[in-house]
Amino acid sequence: MYISNEGLLVILFVGLVAGWLAGKVVRGSGFGIIGDIVIGIAGAFVASFLFPKLGIHIGTGLISEIIYSAIGAIILLLVVRLVRGGGRF
Q: Where are the domains of the chain?
C-alpha cells in the first residue's frame, strides 16, 4: 500500500487529535499528553490500514478519519495499558 506525502501528513495530524481524544476517553493510563499523542499517531496508522481491510467504513472526510483514528488509538491505549498494567483495565 502506497501513502503519499499529503496522506502521511493527514495521518499525523489526525493522530495528534485522536491521541488527545483517546487520552480523554481512557483515563488513568499514566502516559501523559505526549505519550497519548504518540500512541494516537500509532493508532491512526493502525486504523488507516486495518479498518479498510476489515470492511469498516464510516464515511469520507476528516471527521471520519478522526473517528477511525480515535478508535484505533483507544484500542491501542487499552492494549498497552493491559500489557503494562499487569492485565487490569
A: 17-22+32-83
